[in-house]
Amino acid sequence: MVHVEHCAAKLKASPEGVQVFLETGIGLSVHWGLYSLLGRSEWAMHHERISMPAYEGLFDRFNPVQFDADEWADLMVDIGATAFVITSKHHDGFCLYDSALTDYKSTQTPFGRDLLAELAEACHKRGISLHFYYSLLDWHHPDYLNDWPAYVEYYQGQVRELCTDFGPIGGILFDGYWPRHHFERSNGYFRPGGDWDLAGTYDLIHSLQPQAMVTNNHHVLPLAGEDYQVWELDLPGENTIGFNTTDMGELPRASWFNVNIGWSFRYEHRDPKSSQTLAALVTKAAARQASSWMNVGPTPEGIILPEDADALRGMARILKGV
What tens digit of pLDDT does each residue of 269-305 get? Predict the structure, then answer.
């Protein structure tokens, strides 16, 4: 039996925010964090049962000295992306910005910089709509397992930061709440300790950023306060990977595709999709009134793989008929 949290959010994105999203077409998505150093999967900590102390050792090695926010944003311009979404915090709890609520963040690593702030500036300069991915699930924060009300306060505090520290944002994409999946409480950091207070979270976002588009990768029909429906690695209405819903609501839509194998950087087993394949996915999504998030996984040094960038640029040329 699927238990979906009741959400009585009162607010939604402004008509102007919805219109901007409807005109997006293509957005660049990025999965990047400590897991990139392992080069196997953003889920490596869980899949490989890596202990917290061992995984935290990656923190002292995070130093992407070749990262250049302007280079990333220039790629977005090259491929015709008008929106950008990045993992502000993934399931491992590590933050790519200077959160006041934790020390588990990029500004405390050897790199010492606020990556989201630099990317926000680069996007704003180019008129690119800035979205943040945020994991509700947190394998690192002790309150997730031990003090649920305190954890909800923590994550909502971080959502407030994302809505106040980076200028206008285009939206927030949540992940880590999967009501169609059942996890034992002992199965790592998975099963939540209570309701997420999604209504409070969504109304917080819309009160601070009225134009922001909220979505949740929960694989069910959108709840109150959510502004578009997203399909993970699928076209709208399809479930080729086994956990998407085939139900399509009336809200705007987006498909979320990977350019290469997996969401994050891999040292091995790389096989980027061809430009023709990527262009076909965008075209098929558009035929179902959906935008396309095209995801890449930068290297530990902060570089978007050249083969991924080349595939995306080729995609853009095909879509333009060049």
Answer: 999 999 999 999 999 999 999 999 999 999 999 999 9
Least Cα distance to 102 among 34, 166, 161 occurs for 161
Residue 278 to residue 258: CA distance in whole angstroms: 9
Does residue 89 form part of some domain?
Answer: yes
The model's pTM: 0.97
Give the CATH number, domain containing residue 41.
3.20.20.80
Question: 3-state class of 122 per DSSP?
Answer: helix
In the chain, which ranges are continuous DSSP H helix? Answer: 15-22, 35-38, 44-47, 52-56, 69-78, 115-126, 143-146, 148-164, 198-208, 275-287, 306-320
How many domains, in total, are found in the chain? 1
Please indicate, yes or no, if residue 7 is contained in any of the structural domains: no
Q: CA-CA distance, 320 to 322, in Å (whole number)?
A: 5
3-state SS, residue 34: coil
